[in-house]
Amino acid sequence: MLAGLVAAAGIALHHSTSGIPAVLVLATFALWAWAFSLVAVLAALRARSVVLTVIAVTLVGAGVVQYGPLVSPARGHDDDGIDLRVLMQNLQFGSADPDDVVRAVREGSVDLLLAVEVTPEALEGLRAAGLGEMLAYEASDAAPRAAGVAAWSRYPLSSPERVPGFSLGVLRTGMAGPGGPVTVVAAHPVAPMVDGPAAVEEADRLRWFLGAVPGPAPVVVGGDFNATWDHARFRGLRGLGYTDSVSGGGDGWVPTWPADRRVPPLIGIDHVLARGAQAVGETDTVRVRATDHLGVLATVRLPAERVG
Q: How far is it, in rounded angstroms, from Cα 39 to Cα 34?
């Protein structure tokens, strides 16, 4: 019975739009709570209770529906599109090993690197490590601790624009992509565990900002959203035309934090999203030394340049 209650709480948290800080934190672990529905099924079968079995199976089914998009097969796309390899990396207060970041870029054939928690020291370290030899164009706004954001690209970038209203940082730049203009955004809204009310405000503000980015040029977003698939405000970006790489590619559960413990990461709060792209998916993670976040590597398929 207790397992069923925990599972039901997980399902309720997945759909909650509450701004109460405790609810936001608990929603981060809704998937784990829903997993107790499997325990509830076994317990109900052992008890030979038809009623409890029906309830437990219903809880399992509800979770299958809400997590189904994460494992649904990716849609087909235009073969004429152009693949853009995107890496999102949290540098953890600038402590990430710059040589290892450069290695991840090289081994992942990365075209666009988006980073948060970029300190001035980290910026200089990445430059010294030779990041510019692979990604020649930089749009950065480094800052102490966790407030810095930056983008590096194989393709020309415009001057960075720091978006006001975010305590940790959101940066916007334009990329002269291989098939035409692309808007690039690196985002780092505050975590509900740090400041619950501010987390709600910044999630809503980020939604408004991303919704207001003009089209029809594609938009590529990478960030530590401090939100998982179980946060309704994050999933709400789908209503604005954005698709995250995990659900877009049917890539399953991709946890990214914490990555500096003896146990594997528990939650997926780092994401790559796109709007106006033909497809986004092929999600993978990369491990970089001296940061508590796995990097998220994904492929965004941009429309090919149209002539006439």
A: 10
Task: Give the separation between CA 177 and CA 85, rounded to whole angstroms.
Answer: 12
| Token digits of residue 44 | 């109900």
**pLDDT of 33-57, one tens digit each?**
999 998 888 888 888 888 888 898 9
The model's pTM is: 0.94
Cis peptide before 258 (omega within 30 of 0): yes
CB count within 10 Å of CB 224 equals 29
pLDDT tens per residue, range 127-170: 999 999 999 999 999 999 999 999 999 999 999 999 999 999 99
H runs (alpha helix) in the chain: 2-15, 21-27, 30-34, 36-47, 50-67, 98-107, 120-128, 131-134, 196-212, 232-235, 245-249
Residues 62-96 pLDDT 10s: 999 999 989 887 766 666 899 999 999 999 999 99
Amino acid found at 46: R
The separation between the first and the last C-alpha atoms of the chain, rounded to the nearest angstrom, is 64
